[in-house]
């Protein structure tokens, strides 16, 4: 490397410099920006300045790629954990209901708890197992709402737990890079990320309904998070 008189350029080395990923995101972004500014300020020679800028761009590209991968991994881990949490909430509800109560309706416009459980399992199988894992689409959506009896509360728990376990396995083993792939569950063109996000939100929505129905049928609070003062 040739230096002009009175000037010793400080360039980034031949290997990409990757900032540590265990710091706060804002600190890391600020450190990367500071690094770029220091390199630009230290290089007064036009050729060396351009070279230094290109090296900074290369390093930041590596950094951004790693950050994208980390964010994707966090999304997958959180989605799996949220499904596990909702399974606990659903089990707490069904454990308090009789097999008659899980099929109780107060009108043709309502869905029983049992219907909602079957609906959630069908949705997960179509959007995760089929949409994200490529399994055959075996869902018959209308049957999820036409059933009026049959499965006991215990059988519904087993069915939901096994379906969630299968869905979580798909999510837990999914390569983060696949989140941007396209898929078509229910004939909708969405990304794999969209499909997972839809399922997690859908489960939370209907488990919330089941919590409300359980409180109404039992006349009791469930104390699922922080027990209410009594």
Overall description:
- The chain has 230 residues and is an all-alpha fold.
- The protein has a domain of 146 residues: Four Helix Bundle (Hemerythrin (Met), subunit A), CATH 1.20.120.450.
- Helix content is 60%, strand content 2%.
- The chain is built from six helices and two strands.
- It has a two-stranded antiparallel ribbon with strand order 1-2.
- Helix 1 runs antiparallel to helix 2, helix 2 runs antiparallel to helix 5 and helix 3 runs antiparallel to helix 6.
- The chain is globular.
- It starts with 24 loop residues before the first helix and ends in a 12-residue tail after the last helix.
Brief synopsis:
With 230 residues, the chain is mainly α.
Helix-strand blueprint:
Elements lengths: L24 H18 L3 H49 L18 H18 L10 H6 L6 H20 L9 E2 L6 E2 H27 L12
Antiparallel strand pairs: 1-2
| Major sheet: arrangement of strands | 1-2
Fourth CATH level, the homologous superfamily of the domain at 73-218: dinb family like domain
- Summarize the helix and strand pattern as letters: HHHHHEEH
Q: What percent of residues are in strands? A: under 5%
What is the overall silhouette? globular
**C-alpha Rg (nearest Å):** 26 Å
Low-confidence segments:
1-22
Percent of residues in helices: 55-70%
CATH level-two architecture of the domain at 73-218 = Up-down Bundle
Our measurement of the CA-to-CA distance between the termini, rounded to an integer number of angstroms, reads 76 Å
**Mean pLDDT, as a whole number?**
80
**How is the main sheet built?**
2 strands, antiparallel
Under CATH, the topology of the domain at 73-218 can be stated as Four Helix Bundle (Hemerythrin (Met), subunit A)
């Amino acid at each position: 490397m040739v230096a002009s008189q009175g000037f010793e350029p400080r360039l980034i080395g031949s290997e990409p410099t990757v900032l540590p990923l265990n710091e706060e995101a804002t600190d890391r972004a600020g450190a990367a920006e500071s690094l770029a500014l220091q390199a630009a300020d230290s290089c007064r020679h036009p050729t060396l300045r351009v070279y230094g800028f290109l090296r900074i761009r290369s390093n930041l590209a590596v950094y951004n790629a790693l950050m994208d991968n980390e964010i994707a991994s966090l999304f997958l881990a959180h989605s799996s954990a949220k499904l596990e949490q909702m399974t606990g909430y659903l089990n707490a509800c069904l454990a308090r209901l009789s097999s008659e109560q899980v099929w109780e309706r107060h009108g043709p416009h309502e869905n029983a708890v049992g219907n909602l459980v079957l609906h959630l399992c069908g949705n997960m199988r179509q959007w995760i197992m089929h949409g994200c894992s490529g399994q055959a689409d075996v869902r018959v959506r209308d049957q999820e709402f036409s059933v009026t009896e049959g499965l006991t509360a215990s059988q519904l728990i087993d069915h939901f737990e096994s379906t969630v376990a299968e869905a979580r396995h798909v999510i837990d083993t999914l390569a983060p890079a696949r989140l941007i792939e396209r898929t078509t569950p229910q004939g909708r063109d969405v990304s794999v990320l969209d499909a997972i996000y839809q399922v997690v939100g859908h489960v939370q929505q209907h488990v919330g309904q089941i919590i409300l129905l359980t409180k109404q049928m039992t006349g009791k609070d469930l104390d699922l998070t922080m027990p209410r003062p009594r």
